[in-house]
């Protein structure tokens, strides 16, 4: 049965919201790249990115009233058990939007979720960035224990690309993803050295909404060669 009326309006408005969040994210990552000095640790990069997100929002959408929040717990869902395990998990960034066209008030809260991970050469044998990108990143959008973006059709992974060549990096990420039976990332356009490169893949989940589209924004933070 085709959607109509408020249901169609709700879907269209959320799609427009998603497009706005994507634009803000991409601009913020460019602003991050332009910072005079950058930390290496993920938590510190996330903090820098937060302020870049605020700057990007003001630059692109001066009238925007929704701000991103950092390390905020997954929000309760109408189908979750009391204090579901996923409610204890904290994505790196979220935008929370109240859909006034949703007929069920308990289902009216929507979240656009972003998780960030470093990419590049491993630090020793215990902390392997390109493997962690899947095991501590992508997986969180698929596994019920985490269930990031549980009631959304799309989410985003940000990759802080700090070292390695493009092909080698992508091959290592794919190797880790295949071990978890996840599809390869499909590039959108071309590699963008010094900027943002975009990817996407689609996979099934055991909960709503499935299939799920995960977008990947990799910002090139590699130091220029001398």
Topology:
Layout: H1 5-33, H2 42-60, E1 69-70, E2 93-98, E3 109-119, H3 129-135, E4 154-161, H4 166-179, E5 186-188, E6 196-203, E7 212-220
Parallel strand pairs: 3-4, 4-7
Antiparallel strand pairs: 1-2, 2-3, 5-6, 6-7
For the structure shown, list the relevant keywords:
alpha/beta, seven-stranded mixed beta sheet, 226 residues, globular, single chain, 7 strands, 4 helices
Q: Please, could you describe this protein's structure?
A:
- With 226 residues, this protein is α/β, with parallel strands linked by helices.
- The protein has one domain.
- The protein is 31% helix and 21% strand.
- The chain contains four helices and seven strands, in the order ααβββαβαβββ.
- The protein has helices spanning 5-33, 42-60, 129-135, 166-179, and strands at residues 69-70, 93-98, 109-119, 154-161, 186-188, 196-203, 212-220.
- A seven-stranded mixed sheet has the order 1-2-3-4-7-6-5, sandwiched between helices.
- Strand 3 (109-119), helix 3 (129-135) and strand 4 (154-161) form a beta-alpha-beta unit.
- Helix 1 crosses helix 2 and helix 3 (129-135) crosses helix 4 (166-179).
- The longest helix has 29 residues, at 5-33.
- The protein is globular.
- The termini are far apart.
- The model has no long low-confidence stretch (mean pLDDT 92).
């Amino acid at each position: 049965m085709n959607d109509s009326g408020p249901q169609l309006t709700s879907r269209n408005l959320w799609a427009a919201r998603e497009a706005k969040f994507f634009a803000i994210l991409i601009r913020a990552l460019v602003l991050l790249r332009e910072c005079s000095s950058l930390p290496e640790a993920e938590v510190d990069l996330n903090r820098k990115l937060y302020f870049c997100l605020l700057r990007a929002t003001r630059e692109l959408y001066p009238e925007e009233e929704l701000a991103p929040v950092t390390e905020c717990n997954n929000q309760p869902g109408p189908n979750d058990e009391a204090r579901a395990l996923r409610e204890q998990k904290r994505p790196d960034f979220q935008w929370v939007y109240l859909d006034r066209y949703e007929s069920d008030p308990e289902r009216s809260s929507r979240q656009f979720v972003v998780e960030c991970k470093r990419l590049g050469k491993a630090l020793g044998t215990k902390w392997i960035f390109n493997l962690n990108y899947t095991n501590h990143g992508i997986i969180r959008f698929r596994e019920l224990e985490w269930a990031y973006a549980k009631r959304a059709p799309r989410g985003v992974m940000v990759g802080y690309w700090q070292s390695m060549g493009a092909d080698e990096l992508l091959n290592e990420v794919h190797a880790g993803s295949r071990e978890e039976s996840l599809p390869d990332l499909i590039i959108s356009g071309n590699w963008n050295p010094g900027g943002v490169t975009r990817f996407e893949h689609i996979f099934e989940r055991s909960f709503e909404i499935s299939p799920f589209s995960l977008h990947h924004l990799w910002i090139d933070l590699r130091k220029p060669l001398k």
